[in-house]
Amino acid sequence: MNAAPAVAAAAPATGATALPDLCAKCFAYTLWLVQAPSAQSLDVRSVHQRYDELLREFDADGRRAGYEVAQVRLAMFALVAFIDELVLTSTHPVKKTWSDQPLQLTYFNENSAGEEFYVRLEAARRGESARDVDVQEAFYLCLSLGFHGRYAGSSRAEKQRRSLMEQLAAEIRSRRGAAAASLSPHALRPLGDHPGDQLRHVWGVPLVIGAVLVVLLVVWNILLYQAAATAAASFP
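Below the sequence we write its predicted structure tokens.
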């Protein structure tokens, strides 16, 4: 288990400019894409185009918020690995051709993100600034919302993944200092098999409530809009 380095005196970004919160749009779109019936009609080109817009926005917003390029790229890799895995393990029609051009290949010339995710997570854990903790939290969010990578396919692997998540949560709380320590303890509940299960159970970690609240609000607004549109279409 890695010993968490002391956080250097560099103020983290706050509110909607904090790196974990900047991940919210990608999380929301991905969860909607793999779960909403209305998303089934989207073709791979339009989905890739939307992700290109979201990732460019994430990159620009992260740099504008004062994060180093390397920090933004680390968090973006986590997002891309999360997106690729959720799409490829979904029932969405685009999964049939997604493996031909996954986002990890497009943006990082990488084709083994399931393993590389954890290599880059270790790099984030070695960071010493407050903003490096934000990067670590972005990786934690990806795990909380359903990313498995190397920890897939068996109950033993899932147990290892949960153990890692518990370690990460403890490290983040410790490195955040007094403010994080005053929050309620991390209590990871059993995770289900679908992204929605991870979304519901992530509430066990107060550190990520801000980012997950944004995800929930965005997804909820999307679903409300779709329901309203469907209802309106049913009237002459």
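Residues 1-12, 181-209 have pLDDT under 50 and may be disordered.
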